[in-house]
Amino acid sequence: MSDLEIIPITPLIGAEIKNIDLKNNLTEVNVKQIRSAFLNHSVLFFRDQKLSIDEQKVFGKYFGDLHIHPARDRNGIEGHPEILYINAGPNTSRVNGDDWHSDVSCDQEPPMGSILRIFEAPNNGGDTLFASMYAAYDALSEPMKRFLDPLTAVHDGGPNYIDRAKRAGIYKPDKVFPANSHPIIRTHPETGKKAIYVNKIFTQTIDSISKDESKAILEFLFQHIAKPAFQCRFKWEENSIAFWDNRCALHHAMWDYYPEVRRGYRVTIKGDKPF
Description:
Elements (H helix, E strand, L loop, with lengths): L4 E4 L6 E4 L9 H14 L1 E4 L6 H9 L10 H4 E2 L2 E9 L24 E8 L7 E5 H6 L3 H7 L3 E5 L1 H11 L10 E5 L1 E3 L6 E3 L6 E4 L4 H15 L5 E4 L5 E6 L3 E5 L8 E8 L6
Parallel strand pairs: 2-3
Antiparallel strand pairs: 1-2, 3-14, 4-5, 5-16, 6-14, 6-16, 7-13, 7-15, 8-9, 8-12, 10-11
């Protein structure tokens, strides 16, 4: 197979990858090319990739072991614990990922990356936004960088997952979801670059400071990381794939296509403890 064609979406984040069929066994060169593009662009987009569930899992395993989602009992797939079923339509009250977040950042070792294939897309709407947390960090003033650098914040899965379980009618009071403290400024383990690592869905409070101080700082950061200058936007088509780096990119699924349907499967790749 010839070299991949890599087309940047913006100078800061996102690239479309052409000239590859992910159904085929990837060569070592292919995997290195994709990983290099992944590290350079933080999120990769592929079109016209009609993969089976098993083929999607195989693709994910080229980049690491697969992660098991803590809320898989709500939208998992029987026989495939690594797969998360993404499904929104006319009977949906709230969609997955409808605010800025990094997937399962509440885990002690949050996922390194996520691979979502949409096999049914709405005619209009349903885009996903991605934001570079490298760019968000770089845009901070030097005094703010120094202030944030030693701080950690609590990422708690309970509020989000319990709310969704109640909406789905499957809430179990004894179910415990992960909660962990992570650095507000994270160092990417492969690139060495720094990125802001907070998000509106999971980050609840900053450690070691007052509640009021924490609320004010997080509100500033939530507004800062959502600036359009840091973003790219992906319009889904049938059998499109997005592969994003949870260590340095946030994403936001738009819920603007009611009553149309958007369905897909996601695998996530295990990561390591943020530092």
